[in-house]
Amino acid sequence: MRVLITVPNEHWIHRQVVAVVCRLLLHDRRYQLDVRFPAAKPYENNQHQIVREFLHEGFDFWLSMDSDNPPIRNPLDLIALDRDVIGLPTPVWHWKGGGDHERPIHWNAYRYDAEADAYREYLPRDGLQQVDAIGTGCFVIARRVFEHPAMQRGAFTRKLLPDGVVDRGNDFSFSERAREAGFALWCHFDYPCRHFNEIDLHDAALAIKGLMVEPELCCAIHHCYPCQPDCTYHIKRRTPCEVAHGVPAEP
Question: Are residues 71 and 12 in the same domain?
Answer without folding.
Answer: yes
